[in-house]
Amino acid sequence: MNLGLKSGLLGGAAVLALAISVPSYAQDDISGLRQQLEAMKERLAKLEADKREKRSVSAAAAVEAGDKPRSWKLPGTNTSMNIGGFVKFSTQWSFNNDGVTSNLEGTGAGLLRGAQGSAAENAFNGGTFQMTARRSRFWIQTWTPTDWGELRTYIEADFAANGGLGAIQVLRLRHAYGTLGPVLAGQTTTLFGGLIGAPELLDDGSPQALGALRVPQIRYTHNFGGGLTLAVALEDSADRNDANLPGFAQVGANCTGTSCALFTSTAFASGTFFGPKRWPDVTAALQWNFPNGAMYLSGVIGQIDVDSGGAGPSGLVRADSTWRWGGALGARYDFGRVEIGGQGYFGQGIGFKYNGPPTGFLDTIIITQSGSNSTDLRAVTSYGGTAYVQVKLTDTIRATAAGSWGMQEAASEIPGYYTAGSTSRAVLTGQTNVFLSGHGNILWNPVPQVTFGAEYSYQFAAKYNGPNVHLNRLQFSVIYRF
After folding, report:
1. What span, in angstroms and rounded, lies between the C-alpha atoms of 270 and 255?
2. pLDDT tens, 352-389?
3. In this structure, are 228 and 290 located in the same domain?
4. Which residue from 18, 242, 413, 439 could staple onto 378, CB 3.0 to 4.6 Å apart?
5. Is residue 293 within 8 Å of 333, Cβ to Cβ?
6. Are residues 123 and 39 in the same domain?
């Protein structure tokens, strides 16, 4: 029996007893008492309502376990939320950083062009040591059931925005996307190349890793069942990405017949070769997950444009477009204690965008003819691959060895490059022809959330018409996950 009902019965009994036992002249006093009792009942009822409301609010504010591992429900909603990430601290000793002019960790040999014996090269002949935690990252993700399927959102960031170790630490957006059923929209890893077949390394800058690029896109994925999925996407076509890389990697050659000279971007237009983005890249990937392994077949096709906007020398208009295309295959297989994997690719116009800074490869070459509007934008052919083997020495210790090789055929796109005595060779001076790297590490997880690791790496870049580059590095890292 609730408090309001009890109070009403007690009040009624009291009024009846008074009516029987007191004279009539006291009835007025009894009437007043009845009014006081009614007022008291109203106050008690209000207190009961307030208590019920407070209990309801408290229940809504209570934290509930979410529908996903390590998640919780947002109060008052059906949305599960998870926060995670890691702290990564690294020390890196480079024994002979030929041509390095900054302390940006992860710089690949392919981008270095310091001439042997130059001041820039000599300054680092004794090696360089650096420590950083810029690669630490965090993420927030949510899951919400809807009538159209599961709604998922994911945001991830670190502090590795381009600017070198001495620069102010700037938050860098790595991933930011949402999915509703099979549709994804936002910024995340490109479909071309993928991460299957990529080795587990401490080095954040190499080797070649096609799937390391994260670009804005809209994607549709279909699950055929049996571990087989097909995904297609429209992706941003520029080379810009979350690492603040420049636009299309291009070199210009201004030619008179088959004799060419380096054509600077300033002479081409207003200080840039970058052309408009008229169409997105179209990418697709077929992934097959099977017991102990996976395979990943992917491709890309797109268009690269260049246009001076009529601002070229003597009012000449420099404009052209070409196709970007490529195919890649990645795979891995786990034998138990031993895992092997790798990636391979071939294409044109994909050298810098999809291989990234370690190689320094070009996407296109702009060929112009002196005194005319003739412009020929040529996509550079590039190909290469990465392979690795990882051995689980114990349940908590594993060792990895990885090798990477890549080549671009930029010289074949320059008129007269192989002609004896031609000046055309100077167009590619310092550009990378061949890139290779080797990595070896040992990783230890004393507990699942912590990784201690040591890694040695060697990188080599053969340069067109210039000195080659060799890099030797030793890196120690500690990763704390949360």
Report:
1. 20
2. 888 766 788 899 999 999 888 889 999 999 999 999 99
3. yes
4. 413
5. yes
6. no
